[in-house]
TrEMBL record:
This is 6-phosphogluconolactonase. Keywords: Hydrolase. It comes from Desulfobulbus oligotrophicus. SUPFAM superfamilies: NagB/RpiA/CoA transferase-like. It comes from the Bacteria. InterPro entries: 6-phosphogluconolactonase_DevB (IPR005900), 6PGL (IPR039104), Glc/Gal-6P_isomerase (IPR006148), NagB/RpiA_transferase-like (IPR037171). Residues 11-234 form the Glucosamine/galactosamine-6-phosphate isomerase domain. The gene is pgl. Pathway: Carbohydrate degradation; pentose phosphate pathway; D-ribulose 5-phosphate from D-glucose 6-phosphate (oxidative stage): step 2/3. Belongs to the glucosamine/galactosamine-6-phosphate isomerase family. 6-phosphogluconolactonase subfamily.
Length: 250
């Protein structure tokens, strides 16, 4: 059975980011109370950055059990540590450098010194070690949406989209000079709670395609995110929701 979708539209990107930060804090609190730790998978991209910054600020920062949080990434660019194009670099500068997360709880996707396939396999092994089960289940998965319908680095028409066994795969855009490691549909659909954060008018057509598809439209990667048992939330700003029918702003 697929999860129910809940969509909320915020007047602007700042209010969306504030709501997402509060949502994160609440999920962390619930996970800690329920099973003593909070595993979260983060998206890169510009939209969630503000959410991460807000999490690092008072009063929210004081309400989050940082010692019990474990951070993972949905995708990463195979570039040297500290490269500004790496998602980890962005999340460190917005959030992780400012809060007391134990370094061992930051589960980085490596730089691919021994090749991108090796980096993908290493991350799958890291996930296996952490979850210690065949059914890894993040407490929260934060995802973004590209204008072309990609999420994480599940790019349109890429082989990674068809991976139905392994938890990680390799992705590449022909125009980029580096490869990417991405998590795959099987693991992304196992989250207890999945939250898409999408802002800006440039995403409106893709948001409409995904949330209100028309007959005959092709399926885009983000549509494949249909958690089997978890909850699925879409937080949009008015720009991103601009082409949805009957959409009400919160
Ligand atoms: O590393 C990345 O680029 C991502 O994880 C990617 O999937 C991103 O979330 C979308 O491209 C949306 O990015 P924006 O929020 O910048 O539009």
């Amino acid at each position: 059975m697929n999860a129910m979708k809940t969509m909320t539209i915020y007047p602007d990107a700042e209010l969306l980011s504030q709501a997402a930060a509060v949502f994160f804090a609440e999920r962390a609190r619930l996970a800690l109370a329920d099973h003593g730790r909070f595993s979260v998978l983060l998206a890169g991209g510009s939209t969630p950055r503000r959410t991460y910054e807000l999490l690092a600020q008072k009063p929210l920062a004081e309400q989050i059990p940082w010692h019990a949080c474990h951070f993972f990434w949905g995708d990463e660019r195979c570039l040297p540590d500290g490269d500004e194009r790496r998602n980890e670099t962005m999340v460190r500068s917005a959030l992780l450098d400012h809060v007391p997360v134990p370094p061992a709880h930051i589960h980085s996707i490596t730089r691919c010194e021994q090749g991108v396939e090796h980096a993908a396999a290493l991350y799958a092994a890291e996930l296996q070690r952490f979850f210690d089960t065949q059914q890894p289940r993040f407490d929260l998965i934060v995802l973004g949406l590209g204008e072309d319908g990609h999420t994480a680095s599940l790019l349109p028409a890429s082989a990674a989209l068809h991976e139905d066994v392994r938890w990680t795969a390799v992705a590449r855009r022909p125009e980029e000079g580096f490869s990417r490691v991405t998590l795959t549909i099987p693991i992304l659909n196992q989250g207890a709670c999945t939250l898409f954060l999408v802002s800006g008018q440039s995403k409106a057509e893709m948001v409409r395609t995904i949330l209100q598809p028309r007959t005959g439209e092709i399926t885009v990667p983000a549509q494949l995110i249909r958690p089997r048992e978890g909850e699925l939330f879409w937080f949009l700003d008015q720009g991103a929701a601009g082409l949805l029918k009957d959409a009400q702003t919160a």
